[in-house]
Design a protein that fits this description.
Layout lengths: L2 H30 L9 H24 L12 H27 L6 H22 L7
Helix pairs in contact: 1-2, 2-3, 3-4
């Protein structure tokens, strides 16, 4: 298994753990009288589960298992794969900070984090498509 695939898969599992922990905290919040601010993490929870876990696992396995481009260059330039990994994860972490901050205090000036997060995750998606497209082929 390529190193990059291991990073995608293990990081995806960490997002799953974080997402499940958020679910538990949001569930327990009304029962234990914790601050309602925890509910501001709902969009972060969704992003951690669907982008951080599901999408990242898919990308890691696809990078590993898709047919090789060629014997000399099996997966293309690995720097593009690492660019996907970095863009996706920096975008998710910016979203994890910006989303609840803007929900609790819209005048905080942190709206730029959501714009940058969206741009980074969009870039990750497009780069992934570009580096994977030629590997999807007939036998």
């Amino acid at each position: 298994m390529p190193t990059l695939s291991r990073y995608f898969i293990k990081t995806g599992m960490l997002y799953l753990i974080a997402g499940l922990a958020m679910t538990l905290a949001m569930f327990l919040q009304p029962l234990l009288g914790w601050s309602p601010v925890l509910q501001a993490f709902y969009p972060v929870y969704l992003h951690f589960i669907f982008v951080g876990w599901v999408t990242q696992i898919i990308m890691g396995v696809a990078y590993w298992m898709f047919p090789k481009k060629s014997k000399e260059d099996p997966r293309g330039n690995p720097l593009w794969g690492w660019a996907v990994y970095v863009c996706l994860n920096v975008g998710l972490l910016l979203r994890a900070v910006g989303e609840p901050t803007m929900a609790v205090n819209p005048a905080s000036g942190w709206g730029w984090t959501l714009t940058l997060a969206a741009a980074l995750m969009l870039a990750a998606g497009w780069i992934f498509v570009c580096i994977s497209w030629n590997r999807v082929k007939e036998r």
